[in-house]
Amino acid sequence: LGYELPVLYINGEKERLPKYPSTGQEVLERALMFKGAKYKSGGVSMEGMDCSGLVSVALGLDEKWSTGQGDVPGTSRVTITGDKTTFIKELKTGDILVWRYKNSKGENCGHCCIYDDENKKIFHAHGSDGTPTGYTGDLSTYWVKTFGIPKVYRK
After folding, report:
1. Do the beta carbons of residue 58 and residue 114 sit within 8 Å?
2. DSSP classification of residue 92
3. Is-contact 47 37, C-beta < 8 A?
4. Are β-strands 108-116 and 96-102 bridged in parallel, bridged antiparallel, or unpaired?
5. How far is CA 64 from CA 21, 59, 136, in A?
6. HSE-up of 93 (CA within 13 Å, CB side)?
7. Lowest-confidence region among 7-11, 21-25, 33-37, 104-108
8. What are phi and psi of 55, to 5 degrees?
C-alpha cells in the first residue's frame, strides 16, 4: 500500500502500532493517527486521505480497498436487526460502516467510516478536497437519513 503509520510516543518512548489490528479499539486508534489529514480522492497518507484509504490503513491492509470492491477484507459482516432509529445501539467501537449508492448522475458511489461508541460519532475522511479527516456527529441526521442503514463490518 505504501503508507507508513505515524509514530506514537508513549511515556516518551517511540512506538508503532502493530501492522494488523485485532480489535475494534485498535482499528479506531490507528484511524485516529490520521486525524487532520486533508481529504484527497485516492489518498492513503497524511498528505491526503479518502474514506476507503482511511479504512485500509486502519485495518493494516496490504492493498487499498474501496467501497465498490465488496466486503471489507479482514472483517466479518454483522447482521443489523434494528431500524433507522435503533440500529446505532448495535454498533461497537471500530465498526466499519459502508454505504453504496448512486449519485445524481446515476454513477455508483460509496462512503465508509469508523464508529466510535464512546463518543457516539463517526470518524472519516469526507467532503471536498482539503476537508480534514475527523469526527462528525451526523451519522443519523445525514448519513442514515440520506442513504439508509449501512452495511456493518467488525474486526
Report:
1. yes
2. -
3. yes
4. antiparallel
5. 16, 10, 23
6. 16
7. 7-11
8. -65, -40
Question: Which CA distances in Å does 119 have to 28, 39, 72, 116?
Answer: 12, 22, 23, 6
DSSP 35-68: TTPBB-TT-EETTEE-HHHHHHHHHT-SS---GG
Cell match 442514515: residue? 144
Q: What is the pLDDT of residues 87-114, one digit of tens each?
A: 999 999 999 999 998 888 888 889 999 9
User: CB-hemisphere CA count at 13 Å for 134?
Assistant: 8
Residues 6+ apart with CB under 8 A from 141: none
How would you class 125 by CB atoms within 10 Å of its CB: exposed for 0-12, middle for 13-18, buried for 19 or more? buried
Place of cell 440500529: 87
Entry pTM: 0.88
